[in-house]
Write a structure and sequence with these properties.
3-stranded antiparallel beta sheet; mainly alpha; 9 helices; binds fe (iii) ion
């Protein structure tokens, strides 16, 4: 298998106080790594053993008999995107080209914040909240459970985990407080801008979050 064990591009305590060390430890080791281990076990000896994570997701999504593998692979990919969507000292209004696109699509940053929070609050149950690039414009979309924008042809600029395990230790049931902390203190607009710049108008191109290249310290 060519897929590296997941890591984060920062230390577990680097996002405090907006996101606690405990939350990140449990999230990486008890959730994403468990998905990775189960995916690895299912891939061993299979025809997809040498495939990339993105290929595995695209192939298994089309085949209902492979949906257990699809869910684990998609959760590994989604969490890779989530780690890159945050950074120490992040948060605040969007900068650069993404900031301009937000003004073009939503009128102003405050309208975007309202729409992003509304989408998070209206999403029922577990899933993900995404800012994606679709057909030349930004869109806010949610996916349920392990659903991923990768199979919709969208390019994810930001991903936010809406499963309770992402925020329960820090905010209990208050999803809104978690989304506010993400926007005010964590969101990594540099990553969103880099992804948009790399897209270079090539919509629908296979997207690979470059977690492994950007990881400076992988935690065991
Ligand atoms: Fe999660």
């Amino acid at each position: 298998m060519n897929i590296e064990s997941p890591g984060m591009p920062y230390n577990f305590s680097d996002l405090e106080p907006a996101m606690s060390r405990d939350t990140l430890v449990f999230h990486l080791l008890r959730h994403q790594r468990v998905c990775f281990d189960r995916m690895s076990a299912m891939l061993r000896g299979s025809e997809l053993e040498a495939a990339s994570l993105e290929e595995i997701i695209r192939v298994t999504e089309r085949n209902p008999s492979q949906h257990a593998l699809y869910r684990y692979a998609a959760e590994v990919w989604n969490h890779n995107m989530f780690w890159l969507s945050m950074r120490p000292g992040g948060g605040g209004a969007a900068s650069g080209a993404v900031g301009e696109q937000i003004r073009a699509r939503f009128g102003c940053y405050e309208n975007f914040v309202r729409a992003f929070k509304d989408a998070a609050n209206m999403h029922f149950g577990s899933g993900w909240l995404w800012l994606v690039w679709r057909a030349g414009s930004l869109e806010i979309v949610t996916t349920s459970n392990a659903g991923t924008p990768l199979v919709r042809g969208d390019t994810a600029l930001l991903g936010l985990d809406l499963w309770e395990h992402a925020y329960y230790l820090d905010h209990q049931n208050r999803r809104g407080a978690y989304v506010s902390a993400f926007l005010e203190d964590l969101v990594n607009w540099e990553h969103a801008n880099r992804t948009l710049a790399e897209l270079g108008g090539a919509e629908g191109r296979a997207q690979r979050p470059r977690v492994t290249r950007e990881v400076e310290r992988v935690h065991a």
